[in-house]
Amino acid sequence: MLRQRMQQMPDAPALRYQAQKQWQDISWQQFGLFADGISRALLALDIGVQDKLAIFAQNSPQWTIADLAIAQLRAVSAPIYPTSTSEQAAYIINDAQAKVLFVGGQEQYDKALQLIELCPTLTHIILMDKALVKVACAVTVVHWQELLDGDHHSLQGELDQRINDSHLDDLHTLIYTSGTTGDPKGVMLDQRNFASAIRQHCEFIPFHSGDVTLAFLPLSHVFERAWTIYALSQGGTNAYLLNPAQVQGALKEIRPHAMCAVPRLFEKIYSAVMDKVSKAPKGRQRLFQWALHQGHNHFLKDQGEMRFGPWRTFKWIAADRLVLSKIRDQLGGRIRMMPCGGAALDPQVNRFFQSVGLSVLCGFGMTETTATVTASRPGNIGIGSNGTPLPDVELKIGANDEVLVRGDTVMRGYYHRPEADAETFTEDGWLRTGDCGRLDEQGRLVITDRIKELMKTSNGKYIAPQRVEGMCSREPLVEQIAIIADARNYVSALIVPAFEALEAWAKERNIPYKDKLELLENAKVNAHFEERLKEVQQELAKFEQVKKFTLINREFSQKMGEITPTLKLRRKVINQRFAAEIESMYKKVVQLD
What we know:
Blueprint: H1 2-8, E1 13-19, E2 22-27, H2 28-44, E3 52-56, H3 61-72, E4 76-80, H4 86-96, E5 100-103, H5 106-115, E6 124-127, E7 140-143, H6 144-149, H7 156-165, E8 171-176, E9 186-190, H8 191-201, E10 212-215, H9 222-233, E11 237-240, H10 247-254, H11 263-278, H12 282-302, H13 310-329, E12 337-340, H14 347-356, E13 359-366, E14 371-375, E15 388-389, E16 394-397, E17 402-406, E18 413-414, H15 418-424, E19 431-439, E20 445-450, E21 455-456, E22 462-463, H16 465-472, E23 478-484, E24 491-497, H17 499-508, H18 516-521, H19 523-536, E25 546-551, H20 571-577, H21 579-584
Parallel strand pairs: 1-11, 3-4, 3-5, 5-6, 6-7, 10-11, 12-13, 24-25
Antiparallel strand pairs: 1-2, 8-9, 9-18, 13-14, 14-15, 16-17, 17-19, 19-20, 21-22, 23-24
Helix pairs in contact: 1-2, 2-3, 4-5, 8-9, 12-13, 12-14
């Protein structure tokens, strides 16, 4: 499909990237020339059919070019998160038996040099960034441009033959699960998985030739990777953001029509807007709430749940011009939809975006299912749900409310892990997702929680931690939160404050402090958090609500093993590392009412 696009629209922009603070384009024709050049150079390195090559880099056009170049050879890519440690990278390279390692920036290069001695199958390191300096080591180090400049045109016939011989059952990639528990496992996804996912998304995702999408989630994760392949297959332009922290500025510059995101982005935008509104004059606050109400009515009209006459239409147009369009403009002004996955999105946050006119399409999926299993559709959002299954995906609710999946997008299995396959698949071929769920009256999937993450209090009540955490994350002062409840008589939480917002709040109230620790110990600060938590938890049952909390002075860290590269909490590690803080919350009798 990508090669067809190169022939159909050679001069149109395919890939977009930032250099010297300017956005630059790579045309479809250039995309093809680069991919073929890298493919021929890899043939010269004696890369065989189904050989494994690892990509250890941040998002960039070179990432996708390398991905296509590897696929054209019928070889297999094994992505590594750019934030992974050298030990984590070595694990993937050794498990995949990768011969070649593509390296992005200096951080990844430094780690790559540390792992060479640990990886006996590794023969070449390819430097994607021209600023990186080659060093002498036990493997051959070569620059990206050297591969393109090499005289390998005589190998074009062999490349053409590989492309012609390619088959839907060719293994396309090994994506290693981030591993909230145990060692990561290589998920085997073949060409058929991706081809089926593309075909099924075409039936309901309105993304067209010439549309622009922004890739800011890591391409090493199946969500961004599958979305990028889908967007390009439709003739879109994929813009790459090297630093995810710069997403807000990039949105205004790129003005994408779509992008995929995780709940945390939506929570942060929502919190920032609501915080700004809370500080505005009362008249503006009332105008904002009125406009949001009109926007919500318009959303209900689009869902077929409300009829619109001239008066409601007039009020919505006025609300949109005065308030709602200005919020959309902060995100570039052209976004039609934003697929959302990775975790549950709080319904109130979701409702806000739908009311503003930004269609968030919540879905459910896994690495093992080539991302999407279910997704909301434009006109059939179902706030609080994860939408309906893809057209050719079978889904049912099994024992213990576990969601079971079957279809062409389901992986062929874990790489060299037959015992894991036996645990993951039922005898009749259904994939056990490990997630609890139910189907609502419209056949939409509602995820209740991870089976292994459900917490049971000592009073016998079950707590779904992600739901509580999502609700508390609405509060602008909460940056990260980890719920504690298993075998405890009430729910508590470790909270990482949003320090910039907290310090601004403290400054407004003339609260003196020397450092973060003193600020977090301040009685007024803790009283304010207590008040805010009560406010945002009103929709929860009493037994689900956080009764005590501890403010901690640093973020949960991937380097320290507390969160995965996809920002999921590693609860066991957090519970061990903050054991003293957790125990202190259960020594005192005083609790939040």
